[in-house]
Amino acid sequence: MTSRPAPRDRRLLTALRLAAQGIAHPTLESPVEVVRSMLAMQAQDYLGTLWSVGLRTRAATEADVEATHASGTIVRSWPQRGTLHLVAAEDLGWMLSLTGERMLRSAAARNRELGLDADIFARAAAIARERLAGAGRADRAELLAAFAAGGIAVEGQRGSHLLGNLAFTGLVVLCGRTEYALLDEHVPEPRRLDPDAAAEELALRYFTAHGPATLRDLAWWSGLPLTFVRDATARVRDRLDAIELGGVEYLMRPGLEPDGDGVHALPGFDEYLLGYGDRSAALAPEHADTIVPGGNGMFLPTIVARGEVVGTWKRTRTTRVVRVTTGPFAPLSGVAERGFASAMRRYGRFLGSPVEIG
Predict the structure, then answer these.
(1) Per-residue pLDDT tens for 288-316?
(2) Domain spans of the chain?
(3) How large is the average pLDDT for residues 165-180?
(4) What pLDDT was estimated at residue 2?
(5) Which residue has the higher pLDDT, 1 or 102?
(6) Which PANTHER family match (predicted)?
(7) Whole-model pTM over 0.90
């Protein structure tokens, strides 16, 4: 188990990451710029994902982010680790070219347990192509109903694994909250990269957006072998800066300056935590169970002060107002309380709804 960086090192790492990820002082205007800059953003919590994008823009609203998704310039799919992410539409294809086969192999044993084989997947693909052809759209329930009508059982986890296979192979993509489209119709002009160029693009853009980070962070984030990411990173190493802290080398974009004094209200699953295999710079190990209760894989929204996760927050939305309650690990200082209140005012502008704390 990796030991937690020393306090001074943690402070530097988090301040640099807040700057690199565009959290500390956002400069980008549009949602698509944010998603493209981050390469991929974990996205299984749909409403949280919208805020992850919005908080990295200067002033985009929730409606702006959803409109960008609907326009087709950003999409949701499973480009790595078998986990839902938001990516710029043109990037999904080349990312799947690196990761798709590995995700299919990882799912193979479970597919066999569920009685899913190559013939069933081929039949499901044919049904999906027919249902979605001509720029068609269908939500999850409609696609599963089409499979069932075609004689393919979708009970239990079979439906999820059928859709996952179609996504891993690059046939379908999420073009809305639950709506699917054919990837080759929804993204008619994808970027096409050869294997070496794709690997280099992955490494360069990950460290540019997430650095300072380690090779092991990238291997975890991408789900690719350490040897693979080491080789890819070596080929772009001259375009990255490095710092060594506690005997560990971290890579990042050149000229990055730390910027980590503020208070931020981050959604669950935000890349500030989920972007790294080792999250201990921002999150003390003794609080990990609070952020992921019971180790169930569900990350709660976090309060971040001076780079450190200092508590959680939860929203309840009504027709009139959004009510937010907090769960700090220890009483917040007056400065932190005022900073969080400021973050909530910004969140209210994003939602287009007043926010009440308490």
Answers:
(1) 999 999 887 899 999 999 999 999 999 99
(2) 40-186, 300-358
(3) 96
(4) 62
(5) 102
(6) LMO0824 PROTEIN, WINGED HELIX DNA-BINDING DOMAIN-CONTAINING PROTEIN
(7) yes
